[in-house]
Design a protein that fits this description.
21% strand; alpha/beta; 6-stranded mixed sheet; single chain; 495 residues; 37% helix; 10-stranded mixed sheet
Amino acid sequence: MWRKALAAVLLALAVGYFYNSRPDLPEQILQYIGLPSFQTPSQSQNSLEQAISAAWEALITLPSRQWSKVAVGVNACVDVVVTGVGLLQALAVDPGSGLDHEVLHSKEDLKETFIHFMERGAAAERFFSDKEAFQRIARAAAEYPGAKLYVGGNAALIGQKLATYPDLMVLLCGPVGPKLHEMLDEQIVVPPESLQETDEFHLILEYKAGERWGSTQAPQANRFIFSHDVSNGGMSSLETFVASLDEFQPELVVLSGLHMMEGQGRELWEERLKEAVAAIADIPNDIPIHLELASMTDKDFMNSIMQEQVMPIVSSIGLNEQELLFLSQAGEGPHATLPAWKGIPDVGRVSDILLWILEHHGRSDPSSEADLTRIHFHTLAYHVLATVDGYWGNQAAAVMAGARVASSQACGLQTVDIDKVELKAPLEFHSSHADPQEKLSLNPAEPVTVWHRGNVTFHFTPVLVCKRPLRTVGLGDAISAEGLVYSEFKTQQSV
């Protein structure tokens, strides 16, 4: 008995010696002789990320028919980016408990709402109603050590990302002041009517994963945005934007900034939303419109966008997990009773809500008059593209391209560095949270999982999450822009 034990020990030592001196020793040899793998968990994890990154590079290809002109509007500003905890301390407010305020009226409201979202690690955006108080905070933010100025506003950020493609001409409409105009890519065309004498400033309070303030600790890196922005709040550039399209002749229109109207009060946004819909309706039917959503808190406002007003007349939308769940809560859709996501959003629940949107507010029914046929959903760990069959091509590449840019841009890089990212997406999940459900899995060598529900196709890909993100602002806009660049719209005649 002891001889067998000694032989096993010697064999293990011998294999261990060869393994350490020859790290390329095939894994199959270890399995063949019945010994456990000497590969550490970190080595195994790293190989998954390497496989996914390599597969992205091999599989992401541009569509055969690409956009040459894209018009983007209508929110634009200058972002002042500061550390949130540092700025609030400089404003002499003490940490406390979190409380969400739909509109901010004071420093105290700002502190409570910031803490509310920081402890959840969630992104959010709010309107600050007091102009003078906002200007005082903005001055403090601009003077805070390490504060940085960037191009801001969903439309301007999407335009900047699109302009990185040299063969793509971009029209940007929005309130463009002198500082913003100076920072925009020279490839971006700004109509003279969009230029204004002063810039609109948005304050971006960032926090890191694990950062503490008082009893609050952030579970992940994210940011909180607030502003007193009247130009963007009233979408004052929308009519100029639509009027500019005749001369520019775009092949795709990207619309954002609707969320900014929410802080103006119901009477104002109801009227302005009707005017916005009338303006958007003037865009020719053969030009697809992508709507980029952002954080909202008013269910009536969201319902007006979803049911009566905007969503039926756009072809595509982009949104994150907070916006997706709020949309379902506002419309009493699937999983509307869920107060918030816990950790990584369940893929089956996400799939249920995406299908519900396309069935109730899109064109999954061929007899529907709605135009919505595409939804690009993004969350920290993964992305899902849901499309009605027959309207969009190259969507596997599009969803991977969106995930790839999230992985690289968060780390401040042009390409993915596998040593700086980690896989957080589930390796196994279900197509629905209810029956009938299909059990699905992620194959790192072909990192797009596809499933069908009726005439809607879902494309899932993981994100290689940046371990130490340098900047989280604008990631959603970059994701949507990249996904659109790699998407091909099929005209109605070819459906």
